[in-house]
């Protein structure tokens, strides 16, 4: 009997100790790890000291290496994808980057809640739709022409509010043992042919798929988009929760073809060695040849716009583009950077003529998918 | 000693003094409890504000036929999940607590452990193992030539996943309840000629009612709020529709309207659970002390009992672990480095530990008020704590962002706000456990303490809380274990750079790096199994 209160207090004391150490660390972290060159780095919170204020612009304009400062990035791209790149940026520039990782849409929703009070300087999103939504709320500041011109007009906002940094192509993944490449149709509408009955895999809840349907609506009109959805639906496609599940299903023969993003196959190949699956690209401005982007924008509320632009410029530098090409297997968007040898060059793919900012209108897509009985 | 003297001997004066006291619960209880309840209302206030600015269209959307079908589907899913969980948990708890089941300690831990498996991992392993051409099919094909297993996506998959990973809520609750039952009642029943079955039905089951109800409530609310299982199994529940609004169009207005509909549904669940609570008393009214019941010999029945436990552990624990180990081994053999993220594990433990303590501190006044000073106010306060548990984590996170940005900006993206978020989500787990425990303590003991000159605070500290310790510990452990796997609130509310095992798993699995997700997922189960063992075994040791 006498032991029990002791155990309880011991437990509480232990947890309380951990709590104190935990509460301490986040506050300590920024001051302890940042600013290799004393205290006057470009941190807006330090601004009250008037003598140091004038130094700030001078310093941020100084050459990149060893410059210091802290940048806050909301990243809808996971740490497994972009963490190493951001570390490299820190090493190359001396700028400390604090990253909040999360789901792209959830972070966009958080940004909308935060409004002007957002601690974020940069939003790094997985798809153009979320960037479009943040733009629509008027939260982005325009980027400089020097940065924008790095990337083809197809892959950035027309008002310069965000820029694409890597391309994610919609492709058809197919099992070469079950279907020959020459038997695949030249347009995405070819899959409404009854001969594909029971052979298609898709993921209607997937964001990339929905972005594609939005593109289809914008390019071909509501009616054609509905026709396509109903045509595929009539072929009784197998529904999967995610792109990877589709690639795996194609590889093990569950279905013959699947609508996915191009890089899932390449990542699975890296993890599993060999798979009976290949990517097929549409061409000739077919809606199926849509290339969506992961992109980045600078928040209007940021006090760190110079650092933010520096970060964004880094993402469209050759070094970073090479990283996307070899590590995440995406299409680099800057000319002269080579894509993975298994991928076609961007100039070879004639993408449909669409302003990617228009992909923000997913509301109507959801409605259409629901009406067509797909969701 | 162990004589049966239940209701009829309660002296009248005492009950009158209780009814007088009911009018005046001490401030030191009401004030914190009210504070807690107000905190719980933050998400609702947020939803009302967002829904009000949503415009007419969002409300029209709510009136579509589809909303009704989503509503019915959600009710069906939550109801069936709860029912099956109870059907699993009642016999299982009885086997684990009251019989000489072989390897009882092992089964006690193993059957409770599925609780620590996040549904977004569990759902995926269920699909990977039992999908039409999943691992099971691969095993069966050479044996009996099965080409495809029946489709698992949709209702069956969602039901299976939710049940497998949430039945421990009822199990733990019933186990605690069973241990608190005074065995003398059963002995009396047996001595009066009732068989074991009749005794179980007439004596044990009625006494377990609050435990079953408390556990069921947690399962039902979990099924309402869970996103991982329904999204992976593509079942249209409210939560999935709400998430889809955020993910597809970042449409906060309509999502808020749908969330409010979910709150209304939660209210319905809470109301019906409230109806099952009678005025019955669950403490012993005579003298003597609680002692463990004698174990029932299973004899030949131990084989079906073992098969039952084995099947459950196979499905709910071995299957997900097996899939994760398979992913890990496959990744390692393809040159993926083994990343054991100890720092993330440590941060998980710290955050979960603090959340557990915070939830218990917030839960004690609420539970004491609800049990000892039952009245309209205390009932409302207690019920309000359940709202957060039924809302999708994303909604709670956005509500707290909204609240802290507009009201208490300095705590935005601090550890404190994160803990507040966890507390809003998981408080009812602590409240339920503590409440069940309090119900089994006779108020006479507290009255004796008061009559001997102790202040209410001293009574609380020296009598009530020590006696309610199993409930306090169970509540803390439950909150700890569910916080370990929590994702949406962790992602949005944590200080920048804060990483837990759950965020590591998510980071890897959302980009389909399964091999990388497997290591932190296994670590999560490993780290959680220690407190789980403490929860189910430590409690038992103390009792015997």
Molecular structure report:
The complex is a heterodimer of chains A (375) and B (544). Chain A has helices at residues 3-33, 55-61, 79-93, 104-114, 128-136, 145-148, 207-234, 243-251, 263-272, 305-315, 318-327, 363-371; strands spanning 70-75, 96-101, 122-125, 140-141, 162-174, 200-202, 238-239, 257-261, 278-280, 291-299, 331-332. Chain A is α/β, with parallel strands linked by helices. Chain A has 2 domains: 64-166 and 292-332, 3-Layer(aba) Sandwich (D-Maltodextrin-Binding Protein, domain 2); 168-291 and 350-371, D-Maltodextrin-Binding Protein, domain 2. Chain B is an all-alpha fold. Chain B has one domain (25-283, 300-543): MetI-like (MetI-like fold). Chain B is globular and about 65 Å long. Chains A and B meet through helix 1, helix 3, strand 2, helix 4 and helix 8 of A and helix 13, helix 16, helix 19, helix 23 and helix 24 of B.
Number of helices of chain B: 26
Q: Kindly state the mean pLDDT of chain A as a whole number?
A: 82
Helix content of chain B: over 70%
Q: Would you tell me which CATH topology of the largest domain in chain A applies?
A: D-Maltodextrin-Binding Protein, domain 2
Classified in CATH, the superfamily of the largest domain in chain A is Periplasmic binding protein-like II
List keywords for this structure.
heterodimer, A: 375 residues, alpha/beta, D-Maltodextrin-Binding Protein, domain 2, 2 domains, eleven-stranded mixed sheet, 12 helices, 15% strand, disordered N terminus, B: 544 residues, mainly alpha, MetI-like fold, 26 helices, 0% strand
